[in-house]
Design goal:
This protein is α/β, with parallel strands linked by helices. Helix content is about 40%, strand content about 15%.
């Protein structure tokens, strides 16, 4: 697999860091999750569980090894530093400054492992006026202005369906790590990566900043092309209180649809800029789609090339034939479902290792690999270094 031979030390918690390192594990990297004392990784206990394991944890920690250490003990910190010394990649996501106070910051690790690729994930970055602000995904989206564009039908900001800041930090973080590893092949040098969730959000707004940059003002959200200003790129309610979408605004899609409705008189309006000029088309669609059920429209659109889709539930999405065909939902030997691997390599494809580690499951195994004797391992256990 693509990352076979790469060793990763995962010091992160919750979502962005663990997802980043799981994507690496799926491609063959050895990922050692260093869990804090007490109950370890918080998402072990968040949300629904199957056979005592939370779905959240299984979706972010499969194929990893778990070592639980108390970094506030000299012996625990010493073992953690030995792990850091042999790692190719280290991922941490504490609030800025915390990891250095614990003794595992970049400069400390670089002293024993100069070619390490070390990434710090945080809400706002390792510098700037927001350095000390605590935040998870929602607050980060709010500060960035992204949440203000995520409006419900009542015109008010709605809870986002996907934690975009978390997910973008994970995927951009993975890209940054892989870039640094690629460059290391030529230079022999590692690197330090400061990756902020808010930076990742801002970087993903190239098609949303028209009025912000051109007019230096906030957009009128529901008049913008991608947020409902275009009649052919919108959400519509059906007679059974479900929803469908038209998901492409190119004029030929509008022509295909309006021809079947025998309303080509509305086509010139679809060529107008998004906003009030398209209101008659939106009104027609609203009235028309509310006249029949979602199932009716699914059948009606079978022969219409117009980027139509029903709004599925998440359960329906997981059962979708395309999702299943692409193996984005996979099933283990016990019949439990898991999220699949999105990167489809022709050569050396990734592989799902379904098992998620128990807390501290690999303490002894990893200690032996690091050269600890059996008596030293007992001392680690008795001293509380194994948390």
């Amino acid at each position: 697999m693509k990352l076979e031979g790469i060793q990763v030390l995962d010091l992160s918690l919750f979502l962005p860091g663990p997802l980043l390192t799981q994507m690496m594990a799926d491609q063959g990297a050895e990922v050692i999750k260093l869990e804090p004392r007490g109950s370890g990784e918080p998402n072990r206990s968040i949300g629904q569980k199957r056979d005592g394991v939370s779905v959240y944890f299984a979706n972010t920690h499969r194929g990893k090894r778990s070592v639980q250490l108390n970094l506030k003990t000299p012996a625990g910190l010493e073992m953690a530093m030995k792990l850091a010394a042999e790692a190719d990649v280290i991922v941490e996501a504490f609030r800025p400054g915390v990891i250095s106070r614990l003794g595992l910051g970049y400069e400390a690790v670089k002293a024993v492992n100069p070619d390490v690729v070390y990434i710090s994930l945080s809400a706002f970055g390792q510098d700037g006026p927001y350095l000390k602000k605590p935040a998870h995904d929602l607050a980060t989206e709010a500060y960035a202005g992204v949440l203000s564009t995520n409006l419900g039908f009542d015109g008010k900001p709605a809870m986002p369906a996907i934690p975009a800041a978390d997910m973008l930090a994970a995927t951009m973080g993975l890209s940054a790590v892989l870039m640094a590893l690629l460059r290391r092949k030529d230079t022999g040098r590692g690197d330090y990566i400061d990756l902020a969730m808010m930076d990742s959000l801002i970087a993903c707004l190239p098609n949303s900043m028209g009025s912000v940059f051109a007019d230096r003002e906030a957009p009128s959200v529901k008049q913008e092309r991608i947020w409902g200003g275009n009649a052919m790129y919108n959400i519509y309610q059906t007679a059974d209180q479900k929803f469908i979408v038209l998901g492409a605004s190119e004029i030929h899609f509008a022509e295909n649809l309006l021809r079947k409705f025998e309303r080509l008189d509305l086509l010139p309006l679809c060529a107008q800029p998004p906003g009030p000029s398209q209101e008659p088309v939106r009104e027609f669609f609203c009235e028309t789609f509310q006249s029949q059920s979602q199932d009716y429209w699914v059948q009606w659109f079978e022969d219409v090339d117009a980027a139509f889709a029903p709004v599925n539930s998440l359960r329906q999405g997981a059962d979708n034939e395309q999702v299943r065909y692409r193996q984005m939902i996979v099933v283990d030997e016990n019949g439990r479902e898991h999220i699949g691997i999105p990167m489809k390599f022709l050569d050396e494809p990734g592989q799902v290792h379904f098992a998620a580690p128990e807390l501290g499951q690999h303490n002894t195994e990893i200690a032996r690999r690091l050269g600890y004797s059996e008596s030293q391992i007992r001392q680690l256990q008795e001293s509380g270094a194994f948390a």
